[in-house]
From TrEMBL:
It holds the Pfam family Aldolase_II. SMART domains: Aldolase_II. InterPro entries: Aldolase-II_Adducin_sf, Aldolase_II/adducin_N, Aldolase_II/adducin_N_sf. GO terms for cellular component: cytoskeleton. Residues 21-203 form the Class II aldolase/adducin N-terminal domain. This is Class II aldolase. Belongs to the aldolase class II family. One of its GO terms (molecular function) is actin filament binding.
């Protein structure tokens, strides 16, 4: 019987360094694309090896300051799992720990408080399929009702949040912001970037004051199915953006 190879310590170290660089890249891209809330919100990724360990940003750092070495390794509750002098925000990791704990496929979790995302999260109608980009998310956006600021002691909300997310890749946190998950950092970034774009498009279209054009349910389902084809979601985009940031901000890798 075939047995999968057990990763060596060197394999784990190599993968961990790659994840550090890719997560730092994601933080820099969020800053570059104006998708940050100063020092708040998190992007996290699960580390290889035994135990539940993750990388998150040091609390109080701007996303544009993040480097591979500044990311903090934490346990499932957001407590440091490495010697560090850098602050972490366990309460801010509540959303991430809940998703990571119940979604084995969610190696990466991203949460934002963007202007467009928060504006759509405040609308009763939610995200509308009014553009080709938006149509990728037709009937594919989870919604979680607002329950106040996420706190570590509110374990019951964590259960409801994971329940509401289900097997979706993206979620709108009502009156709060956006969330995406992915099997890779590239996939989670892809879904967050295009969910953000869909929100921006909707606000721009609504500002025109004209009735919105929404295709038939049959057409929406067709376009949604077109987006679902193809493997390695987001990899081509991610590789292009990596090349850009290696030219413009190579210090993210340090």
């Amino acid at each position: 019987m075939f047995s999968p190879a057990v990763p060596t310590p060197q394999d784990i170290a190599t993968t961990t360094q790659r994840l550090r660089e890719d997560l730092a890249l994601a933080y820099r891209l969020f800053a570059h694309l104006d998708m940050t809330d100063t020092v708040y919100t998190h992007l996290s990724v699960r580390l290889p090896g035994s135990g539940h360990r993750f990388l998150v940003n040091p609390y109080g750092y701007l996303f544009e300051e993040i480097t591979a070495s500044s990311l903090v390794e934490v346990d499932a509750r957001g407590q440091p799992a490495q010697p560090t002098t850098m602050p972490v925000n366990p309460a801010g990791f509540v959303i991430h720990s809940a998703v990571h704990g119940r979604r084995p496929d969610a190696a990466c979790v991203m949460h934002t408080h963007t202007l467009a995302g928060m504006a759509i999260a405040a609308q009763q109608g939610g995200l509308l399929p009014i553009n080709q980009i938006s149509m990728e998310f037709y009937n594919a956006v989870a919604v979680h009702e607002y329950e106040g600021i996420a706190e570590d002691r509110n374990l019951s909300e964590r259960e409801r949040l994971v329940r509401d997310l289900g097997d979706h890749k993206v979620m709108i946190l009502k009156n709060h912001g956006l969330l995406s998950v992915g099997a890779t950092i590239a996939e989670a970034f892809y879904y967050m970037y295009y969910l953000e774009q869909a929100c921006r498009i909707q606000l721009a279209a609504q500002s025109g004051g004209q009735p919105l054009s929404i295709p038939s349910p049959q057409m929406l389902a067709h376009v949604r199915s077109q987006f679902s084809t193809g493997a390695d979601k987001g990899e081509m985009l991610w590789n292009a953006l990596r090349r850009k940031m290696q030219r413009e901000q190579p210090d993210y890798m340090t």
